[in-house]
Amino acid sequence: MFFSVLAPLAPVILCIGLGFAIARVGWVRASAIPDLSNIVFLVLTPALLFRTMGGVRLQELDFTPVALYFGAAGLLFVATLMLGGLTTATAARALAHMFSNTVMIGVPFVGLVFGPQGLVTLFTLISLHALVLLTAATLVFELLQAREQRAAQQQQEGGAPHSMARTVGQAVRNSIVHPVPLPILAGLLFAQTGLALPGPVDRALQVMGAALGPMALLLVGISLAYTRIGRHWRGALRIAVAKGLVMPALLFAMARLLGLSGQGIAVMFTAAALPVGANVLLFTQRYGVMQDEVSSAIAISTALALFTLPLVLLAAHYLAG
């Protein structure tokens, strides 16, 4: 059973390793990473998301696993703030503890392990992941930044605090009008019409969707090859451990406490163990805190996942019943 459960992890490791190797020998330069990312996020990802959700009826979706995921994420976020202090730096660390790389690593990995039905559950999470977590994080960041600005007001003059309503509005808009949630919502709306995609269009989307997994994993390896950890490795390692081990452990405990099981719970447990998502780095850049540490944490958590995901798969197999 051990090898049958871990078998889907082999192509993930091989693709990431191959991407790392071709970058190290110079076949792919660092300057090409943004262009490759555009292909993955703007072309291949929307194709897979739209085609998959285009055959799903709303009444077939189960939001219980997603609610469990957000419950675990919220608890970990609040616990980090309480233990680390109410600062924007702690908020950035708390966001890194709970925000998963659900697309670039999650989609190919869950697809290999759980198949199309598992992807439907993951896409249900993805459709709400950024909207819920980033909007909530925006509120926290803005409140803490305003608090810090008031405390520093006597020492230096600074710019006016951001308009919270405007910032939250931008977060909501950017979380929906985005190459990940938008095709999910469009696919769901199309599915409710009962129409079918024309054959050539459906086949084109199928080919592009099939290319997403290997392309995304190769890109992960290429990015790792050009990432420099630097002197922030200790803090980054703590974030990686919290994201890859504490977050899934918390979700697992909540699932057992509530008596929840099944494939949907197993998919959420796996999603909770994924590495830190890149959106966290965008937040740190926006608020000017923890940029180097979070950037290093993304790289370390991705490398650490190659060792922790085998354990996660075994536990997920138990949760799936």
Automatic annotation (TrEMBL):
<keyword id="KW-0472">Membrane</keyword>
<keyword id="KW-1133">Transmembrane helix</keyword>
<feature type="transmembrane region" description="Helical">
    <location>
        <begin position="296"/>
        <end position="320"/>
    </location>
</feature>
<keyword id="KW-1003">Cell membrane</keyword>
<feature type="transmembrane region" description="Helical">
    <location>
        <begin position="36"/>
        <end position="54"/>
    </location>
</feature>
<feature type="transmembrane region" description="Helical">
    <location>
        <begin position="94"/>
        <end position="114"/>
    </location>
</feature>
<dbReference type="GO" id="GO:0055085">
    <property type="term" value="P:transmembrane transport"/>
</dbReference>
<keyword id="KW-0812">Transmembrane</keyword>
<feature type="transmembrane region" description="Helical">
    <location>
        <begin position="265"/>
        <end position="284"/>
    </location>
</feature>
<dbReference type="GO" id="GO:0005886">
    <property type="term" value="C:plasma membrane"/>
</dbReference>
<feature type="transmembrane region" description="Helical">
    <location>
        <begin position="239"/>
        <end position="259"/>
    </location>
</feature>
<dbReference type="InterPro" id="IPR004776">
    <property type="entry name" value="Mem_transp_PIN-like"/>
</dbReference>
<keyword id="KW-0813">Transport</keyword>
<comment type="similarity">
    <text>Belongs to the auxin efflux carrier (TC 2.A.69) family.</text>
</comment>
<feature type="transmembrane region" description="Helical">
    <location>
        <begin position="204"/>
        <end position="227"/>
    </location>
</feature>
<feature type="transmembrane region" description="Helical">
    <location>
        <begin position="66"/>
        <end position="87"/>
    </location>
</feature>
<protein>
    <submittedName>
        <fullName>Transporter</fullName>
    </submittedName>
</protein>
<feature type="transmembrane region" description="Helical">
    <location>
        <begin position="120"/>
        <end position="144"/>
    </location>
</feature>
<feature type="transmembrane region" description="Helical">
    <location>
        <begin position="6"/>
        <end position="27"/>
    </location>
</feature>
<feature type="transmembrane region" description="Helical">
    <location>
        <begin position="180"/>
        <end position="198"/>
    </location>
</feature>
<dbReference type="InterPro" id="IPR038770">
    <property type="entry name" value="Na+/solute_symporter_sf"/>
</dbReference>
<dbReference type="Pfam" id="PF03547">
    <property type="entry name" value="Mem_trans"/>
</dbReference>
